[in-house]
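Quick look at the format.
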Amino acid sequence: FFFLMIRRPPRSTQSRSSAASDVYKRQIQYATKVLEFKRDMNKIVDEIFEANMLLQKAKDQQFGDFMQQYERSAGYLAVYCDMELVKGMVGNKEKEVEEKIEAIMDLFKCIRARDIFLKQYTKLLAKRLLQGKSVSEDCERNLLAKLQMEIGVGEVGKLQKMMEDINISKDESEQFKKYSQENNLLKGLEVNVQVITGASWPNDVAQGRFKMPSDLQSIATKFEQWYQRKYHGRHLQWLMNQGTSDLNFLVNEKSKYLLKVTNAQVCILMLFNRFPDFTFEKLLSILEMKQQDLVTQLVFLVKNGVLIKENPEAKESFEMIESISINKEFKNVKKIVPCIPQKSKSAPEPSPVIGEIDEIQIQRANVIDAAVVRIMKARRKAMLNDIQAECLKLITLFKPQPLMIKQRIETLIERDFLKRNENTKTLFEYIA
């Protein structure tokens, strides 16, 4: 039934606006209103009060206080940046792009929970790069340059490395394509492989991995052999949970369709080239995929009529012994059929605070620990107030609360990094 053709889809395949949930739109709306309000306040201070320095400082302080009270604001600004870099800056002149980036940075300077912004921005940048949805590389680099000036090279370095990975992958993909054509390796299939450096990308990029069917594994093996000859000793892990494909669906000699699918759906559908049906349990066993991930991919194939399930009434659930087969009577008025899962409007809010607050708190604790040890290693002895003041100077990604710094000091004492002075309780000493 199927012939495989993998390539990067054109930008018009799936716009972010069509796939975005109501929650995503509300986040954009929130950030837009805050940016507009900030712009209006800037105009009032600049024009009516002649850019009075005290008023400018007070204005930024109040915006910082507001953004700190609602920490999700930092994540929403990252989502707004994503929207602008996907479609908002399309067709804008250089001056307009610069004005938008300056407005974003003007509000970013007021954010104290910058680690939350950076975490969300990193995830969204990874999606833009892997899906090829950025409006332009220049816009991406322009914003990264501004962020680097504000928070330093160390924090932005990984983001720049992600962009370098994609640029290098483009060249390598072309080289492999030329090599495969010269040696007739892929027999007409079009394959675009992106090689990324694991340490520079967010951890969730590698989540949801599963096993490839033998047809795809043979393609992967050919690329690995070519890659290993070029870079001896490097180990590749295939992330088939990322990326999309175009798949030719041949129902019969007269009926041919082009399916827009995820790589996970490709792995599912390729299995039906050999057998007409599978049970849900069998698919789980062959692909070694998480149950919920398999359900998500199958639901949209069933909804679009490509596959048929034994119990059609339960549209979004599958029994283990339920049979799933190819729809040999498939018909569609469109020759191009999109089957890529889209976000549900009822989906929970994708906030960087909900579901990730523990991870963020752990990261913040590690940052404070490192700052305290660095201070004490240099000073050998220091009062609690001095340690807290130095931590506020050293830590730029968030504003640590004095109580949290004190708690981390207690933890460092328990771990034998510091000790409390016997005569003065607020005086601490570094243990070499």
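Next, a different chain entirely:
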Amino acid sequence: MCIRDRTPVSGQITKCNMEFVLRTPAGCPVSLFSGGILGVLRYFIYAVILFAIYGAAGTFYNKRVNNISGIEAFPHIEFWRKTPAHAFTLVRFVLKKSRVLVDMILARVGKGGSTQSYSSGKGYMTV
């Protein structure tokens, strides 16, 4: 039972049942972002710290074990070099699909939209 104060355990015994209620704040639901913007900021800071540890440990390992020097020693450097291009591609894909959806909705309600051909998976349809 979610109770914010710390009162002791209460119990009740009947003929067939024994029931105990433990009042504790530990039973209260919590949100990942409880605390508003400060909660979000805290998890962002944790992510940055973990990324820094990952980078430092991976670079140290690559320099010592694999004898790699310079920026190439950063762990998975090829992945990190391609990440901005992948993010751009993702944004472009989402915007294109959103435009298709908006055009289809506008065509159904009769307000026009751009006249383009889109693949519908089963062939082509013109909106």
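The longest strand covers residues 10-13.

See the schema section for token definitions.
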